[in-house]
Amino acid sequence: MSLQLTGVGYRYAGATAAALLDIDLLLGPGEVVGVAGASESGKTTLCLVAAGLAPRTVGGQIRGTILLDGEDVDAWPMHRLSARIGIGFQNPATQLSQVAGTVFEEVAFGPMNLGVPRNEVVSHTWAALETLRIENLAERDPFRLSGGQQQLVAMAGLLAMRPEHLVLDEPTAQLDPEGTRLVGDAIARLAAEGASILITEQKTDLLAAIAARVIVLDGGRIARAGTADDVLADPGLAELGVAPPAMHRLRRAAADAGVAPGTLGSLDG
Ligand SMILES: Nc1ncnc2c1ncn2[C@@H]1O[C@H](COP(=O)(O)OP(=O)(O)OP(=O)(O)O)[C@@H](O)[C@H]1O
Ligand SMILES: [Mg+2]
Fold first, then answer.
1. Domain residues for 192?
2. I need a labelling partner for 245 at 20 to 30 A (CA). Which of 49, 76, 206, 215 fits?
3. What are 69-102's pLDDT values in tens digits?
4. Total domain count for the chain?
């Protein structure tokens, strides 16, 4: 399972400037790659482009190539693409099918559309609800939930499809620490099963926990790329509009205060 972007640039219809420029990115099987960056840096646009929605359904102009497991997806019809790559939108309400009357039906909608056999649809749906601890919401109306609950339902819908490739745009933005941890665990488990996953996040602590590599976008370009450890410890992160993980903030505060390295114990690990 791999997703590869080479020399990708993208401009929205009617825009004078490109929203993405010179994006080279390779996600191998089982790899979680994190995307950080200030507001308007291009995170959502990268998700739309990587999942094949831009320009296909959004319009605009693209350059470069996108390969899914080595195949150029340019000419693929949308239904073929969406069977292979899932996308979670920044606003979970956008994700809802509009046709499901209950959370259970909502989560089952994706695998059902993919033609998964009925008994598996049911078992995958319950498994996804249980993973995110929202079985208790199964009979509820998806439109009468809090933003955080909708975000978990949208994520469950993606998990139930068992995607080989997944693009997630700030999937924990509306979640409390417990919900964030559950989503993080679910992403890590999906990756352990071989999926390649691209995830944008403001929560760099979450990226530190689940991403092997991280890129930072700035004005639509990749400003930093490397292992999560290296990129998230970069002293220039704040200037790029990205809050460093708590671990790195503490380490730097200790260094500024003249605390000798090593005295912070496991924090130095
Ligand atoms: N539909 C659109 N048409 C024209 N320009 C757009 C459109 N959507 C986004 N842009 C522009 O593309 C650039 C990147 O926006 P994008 O939404 O990808 O950033 P982002 O990093 O996801 O921001 P945020 O953190 O606020 O979600 C911005 O300059 C934005 O104004
Ligand atoms: Mg965005």
1. 30-54+76-268
2. 49
3. 999 998 898 888 988 999 999 999 999 999 999 9
4. 1
